[in-house]
What does this fold into?
Amino acid sequence: MSVLQALANAKEANDPQSLLPYFPYANAIGISASLSEGQLVAQLAFDQHIIGDLGAAALQGGAISTLLESVAVLAIVWEIDKIQMPQLMNHSVEYLSSGRPKPTFARAEITRHGHQIANVRTIAWQDDQSTPIAAAHSHVLLHPMAK
It folds into this structure.
């Protein structure tokens, strides 16, 4: 099945999780996606292989970054019609506090999108969405479908 067909099927079924096979890194570290009150939310399930500092039991920064990247691109394909799989161009992460060994959540907000580029702001949190552990800003290259 093509990415475009998978996207159409996922939107029809309201099932963003079915798109994650097209995100290899997300699959490798255990990211899932769902809709919560109509908003796309990604979850990174805790597992020992994503611990970066064993002494402090802190999540690996790369795992948090991958969560933020994945939700940014997933939000674009979920919210913007008539595009093919977008390409991440630039991704800047602000680590605000250590991630603890528990599930981590993320959401994205498309702050601007034109014909070729989208700007996306993402946050990751664990217990309380108003207390993020990381935030990121991404520039994503859009690939509109041919007319």
Q: What stands out?
A: The chain has a mean pLDDT of 87. The chain is about 25% helix and 35% strand. Helices lie at 3-13, 24-29, 61-79. The longest strand covers residues 104-113.
